[in-house]
Each structure stands twice: as structure tokens, then as C-alpha cells.
């Protein structure tokens, strides 16, 4: 590896995971970091991930080959402005933010196009912070790379190789293309999920009948409404232009659907549902994407004492941990009494095989 020194501004889940993986791959690599909390830097130093035990000053980043901006988008832009007169001519600054247009426009304004390559690792967890970072977090996750028009080709190739070494799948896109795509497959779905949950909340009666009978299907399509409200407020405002464009298209789609239902236009409804089903069925889940994967299975279970405990024991005796468990009371359109959520795909596959071996009927969705 030709890189000698890498700096990190922010050591949260993503930044911390990159640091840990790079350290595992290249223990000789010099890495420095600063973070909002001094104890985070001290923790990273204690784990021998970085060479400084207190937060760096920005001048300490002057001789870095790469600088990773791993704070929220607005803060990344502030640091970008401060780093302009600090970095060496050959330094490459990259970020890990989920919205790219805003920071790219600031890069252009600052004249830093030759020193910046945007990045977006499409991985995450409900847990945060360095203590929850993992050197395997980015494995098989898409990592979008968004060069500027002046990013040196060798630097883009080098960053692509670095991303691949992290176990991630690099994909080079234009920054506006990235924001439009993520608005469609991540940002808009979150807006829809939050809106649908609020619609049901506002439409429910005082006995909360809707909440009581909400089935797995409703919970599946609204699961992401449990994400951080603050984070999604920031994303919606940062990617406002693309989200509004797609939201207008979605509203038009709903209006067409409403017309078809009002007109009892059976062929049009069938065509729409069939087209959606065919497209959805064509999506293969081969890597982590913008929406966090859920590794779950459903199984039939006789209502008897110790039934759930037996399932848990089968899995525990094979060193498989259950992340979440629940009884599905409304199964009008789906099979499976008991829902089990595992921590990863490998655990899910093993759980399915084990439970089938014990003659449980399994439903995977």
C-alpha cells in the first residue's frame, strides 16, 4: 500500500469501522484522528488504531495522503472549509455522507475539485459510536464513489482499490446521479414509511384497533420509520431537490392508482400490480444496500408451553443468537406464527437449516 498516513475527522460507526479494518490490513499505516468527544480518540488510541491519544488539531492533517470526513454532512462541509489551506497539494479528502450534491457544490466553490472524491458506504447499524464499529461492517456493502470532474484518475483508482480492500463493493457514480438514486430507493421510502405510520396513527380510533391488528406486512413496509428522526430530518433537507422531484412523481402515481380504483378499472390495477411484482421479484439481494437488511424467518408453532423456549434452545445450542422475536397475531396474507430476526445472513441460513431439520415449517420473505 503506497499510502503512508490517513487522517479521520470523526470516529463513529462508519469512521471507526474503516479505521479498524485498515489497521487490521495495514498495521504499519499511520493514522490520526479527531472527534467531538476526546474519550473517543482516547479509546481509539488505547486500541492502537491511531497514534494520537488526544484530538488532533487540523494542522496535524497537513501531511496526510487521505482525510476521511466522517461527521454529519453539515459538519463535513465546515471541516472542508477549514482544511482548504491546510492540506498538501496531493492530499485527497473523501467523506462518508449519504448525500453528495451539497458537499460537491461546496468543493466546487472552494476550488478543491482536484483534492476531493466523495464516498458513501451503504452500511450501518442501529448502534452507533466507535465501540460498536466493526472491521467487518462494510463487507459486501455497496460503497459509492463520486469523483469530481477534476479528481485525478490514479487517485480514483487508488480509492476504489482501498474500498475493495475493506471488503466493500465500489461503484463509481456522478454525485447528482447518486443523490437521485438514493432518493428513490432510500430517502423517499423513509418519507413514505413515516407518512404511512402517521396516517394510521391519526386514523386509528381510541381503542387503537388498527395498531392492534397491524400485521407483518404493515410492519415490514414501515419498519424503517423506526430510524432516527433527527438523521432523516437532516437527509431530507440535504437532498431536498431530488426527494421533491421523486415525491411529485410518486404523488402522480398515487393519483393514477386512485383513479383506477375509483373507476373500478380492473385491467389497469392488475397491470400495475403485476408490473410492480415482476420488478420487485427481479431484485436480488446480493449485497447490503441503502436500506438495512433484515435477516428474518417465520415458522409455524403449536401453542403449547415451552414452544418458543424449544426453538430458542435449538438455536442457542448451536451458538446462534436471536436478535428479535415476536408472535404474529394477524396472518391473513402470510404464513408463520413466530417471527425470528437473526443478526446476519449466515446466522439466518443456519437457523433455517436447523429448524427444518427439527421439522419446523419455515417461511422466508
From TrEMBL:
Pfam family, one: PDH_C
Source superkingdom: Bacteria
Pathway: Amino-acid biosynthesis; L-tyrosine biosynthesis; (4-hydroxyphenyl)pyruvate from prephenate (NAD(+) route): step 1/1
Gene Ontology biological process: tyrosine biosynthetic process
Keywords: Amino-acid biosynthesis, Aromatic amino acid biosynthesis, NAD, Oxidoreductase, Tyrosine biosynthesis
Record family assignment: Belongs to the prephenate/arogenate dehydrogenase family.
Name of the protein in its database record: Prephenate dehydrogenase
Lineage of source species: Bacteria, Bacillati, Bacillota, Clostridia, Lachnospirales
